[in-house]
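Sanity check

After download, print the first record. It should look like this:
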Amino acid sequence: KLTRAPDARGTASMVTAIAFSNETLERIKSYGRKVGIYTTPYFWTKIFGNQLACPKASSAKLWYAKYDNSPAFGDYAQIGGWSVPDMKQYLGDVTICGVDSDKNYKP
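Expected structure tokens:
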């Protein structure tokens, strides 16, 4: 049984968020599954307290969002323990062949 998800308010919640994240990642991996995390520096900081917190999460692939219409990682500012992301969502709410979509970059 996983610990209860944190509510992201206050220092105690940030400590709980880190423990919850680490426990969740380990549990998923224990089933032989691959793990990925989708976030932004803003949300990472809001949940974990600072942009470099929770470095153990870097064992998962990182997909970050920055809607700057630039399919490149040149804007990447380190999140958690990731020195390099795996994928970037760079444009949202576009229509491709009549389907609402987001655009992503993966080298």
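If your output differs, re-run the checksum step. Summary of this record's structure: The chain is about 25% helix and 25% strand.
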